[in-house]
């Protein structure tokens, strides 16, 4: 019996044969963080926080970020799940965190996101 190679899902392109798979740990962390639809959605929401979240009592969306509670409410997930997702995004360098009192606020790290995009463009 021969092993069958899984086919890519409809609407997806298999680029595995066209790119160099040797990656360093930061790159692997980035891909892991981006491999989840909800984490991608959170990044998208954080791109325009005034549009995507209701006003917060403390902290400015642009300078301080968005409170975990606001992200958790919008995602409809438990606080622990959202915190875990945000931690992965932070370890990948895609968001930065700021503690204010008992709350943590997150915002996109646009400089690192631009570097990731630039690196992907070079690889493809």
Count the DSSP helices.
6
Structural class: mainly alpha
At the third CATH level, what is the topology name?
Answer: Arc Repressor Mutant, subunit A
Order of helices and strands, N to C?
HHHEHHEEH
Strands across the major sheet, in which order?
Answer: 1-3-2
Question: What amount of the residues lies in strands?
Answer: 5-15%
Counted up, domains total 1
**What is the 3D form?**
globular
Rg result: 17 Å
Please bin the fraction of helical residues: 40-55%
The CATH class designation is Mainly Alpha
What is the CATH architecture assignment?
A: Orthogonal Bundle
Largest sheet: 3 strands, antiparallel
* Average of pLDDT: 84
Distance, first to last CA: 35 Å
Q: Would you mind describing this structure in some detail?
A:
This protein has 124 residues and is mostly helical. The chain has a single domain, classed as Winged helix-like DNA-binding domain superfamily/Winged helix DNA-binding domain (Arc Repressor Mutant, subunit A, Orthogonal Bundle), CATH 1.10.10. The protein has helices at residues 25-34, 37-47, 49-52, 68-75, 79-91, 110-123, and strands at residues 66-67, 95-100, 103-108. Strands 1-3-2 form a three-stranded antiparallel β-sheet. The longest helix is centred in the last third of the chain and has 14 residues, at 110-123. It is globular and about 45 Å long.
């Amino acid at each position: 019996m021969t092993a069958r190679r899984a086919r890519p899902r409809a609407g997806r392109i298999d680029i595995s044969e066209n790119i160099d798979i040797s990656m360093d740990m930061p790159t692997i962390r980035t891909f892991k963080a981006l491999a989840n639809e909800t984490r991608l959605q959170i990044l998208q929401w954080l791109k325009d926080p005034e549009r995507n979240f209701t006003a917060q009592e403390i902290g400015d969306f642009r300078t301080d970020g968005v409170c975990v509670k606001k992200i958790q409410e919008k995602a409809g997930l438990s606080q622990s799940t959202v915190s875990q997702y945000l931690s992965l995004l932070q370890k990948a360098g895609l968001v930065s965190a700021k503690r204010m009192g008992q709350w943590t606020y997150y915002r996109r790290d646009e400089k690192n996101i631009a570097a990731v995009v630039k690196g992907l463009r070079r690889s493809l």
